């Protein structure tokens, strides 16, 4: 089979009952290609294909699958069939799968672990969801300052099969206090009798209770192959590898993008997601937005008499609400991104508000002048002035609110993406109309 083999051809073999041929075909593929095939197949067909894989290939493939696909395989095959494969996973991957499974199935799989495997999994399970402790690997190779390079290399060789990474080795004291890190490359390049204390460098680490997305971003920003994770007393408890950090960051980006568009992220590939699941991911947000949109209706109702006196005012409602909503959304998106990148903190709220207010004022000035020039020849200077003043007021207001709300959300421990496009657009629509009709009433004497 070539790298371009389609899942449909796999299905054809299944339909023909040619499981021996299917097994031979899959046997010749590397795990990364099998992963792509399994994630493009419906759960039942993916389970059939997975079942014919050789043991070692199955372990390597299962480890690279999304946790949702892993959960589907467990549901189709039963926990008994994957118990041995589950035991081969790293503790953080085991916990990730357990979080996806129903409680009863998760307990059965957990019971299949024994000894050190169970102890390692329980260490990770002991940290709250959303913390980096929940995603770290508690299995690592360590070094001590007084040890020689040859001693640590021998230990890394012995533990390579059970440790998630050996490329970055934390240096710890007798009490497990983190002192620094040393790379395997440095050890291999050094004389065998050189002490680790001469080779180690300061460690860039994180506390196990810190937010997993922030730590993952820090790990990627610094290009750290494995970031040491410590408890509150600076004792080493695990490592976060760069590949896990990349997966965490990617999942966070997908989630933020979905929520910014008033939806929840899909847990499975789009074509394998049921219509009911897609509907469920969107309906709650639409209902919330429908309720919040009543603010706009109430404002229009308040100024119904004003509209009757000057019908031309209605022509510019879409323009003004659109500009206000988009200005707020632009500010929210920019600030949410800056938060995600660590460029700003919640304590910067005043500076952010000031910057966005000035940017909004500048935008409003340009757009207001354009509105004045465009509307005055057709609807009179007074209406043109109403539009100009409204834009000059709405843009800084929308930009300030849009910039501040993600910071407020962060302070309240709510995902900032939730407060981006959907809610801010609705808020700006209502306040924009309120400003518009208030200005019209004052300028036009209605």
UniProtKB/TrEMBL annotation:
Quaternary assembly: Homodimer.
Superkingdom of origin: Bacteria
SMART domains linked: CBS (SM00116), MgtE_N (SM00924)
Native organism: Sphaerimonospora cavernae
InterPro entries assigned: CBS_dom, CBS_dom_sf, Mg_transptr_MgtE_intracell_dom, MgtE_N_sf, MgtE_transporter, SLC41_membr_dom, SLC41_membr_dom_sf
Pfam families: CBS, MgtE, MgtE_N
Segments passing through the bilayer: 283-300, 361-379, 385-409, 421-444
Name of this protein: Magnesium transporter MgtE
Membrane-topology annotation of the record: Multi-pass membrane protein
Subcellular location: Cell membrane; Membrane
Domain CBS intervals: 136-198, 199-255
UniProt keyword annotation of rRNA-binding present: no
CDD domains the UniProt entry points to: CBS_pair_Mg_transporter
Ranges in coiled-coil conformation: none
Family: Belongs to the SLC41A transporter family.
Function: Acts as a magnesium transporter.
Main location per the UniProt record: membrane
Keywords: CBS domain, Cell membrane, Magnesium, Membrane, Metal-binding, Transmembrane, Transmembrane helix, Transport
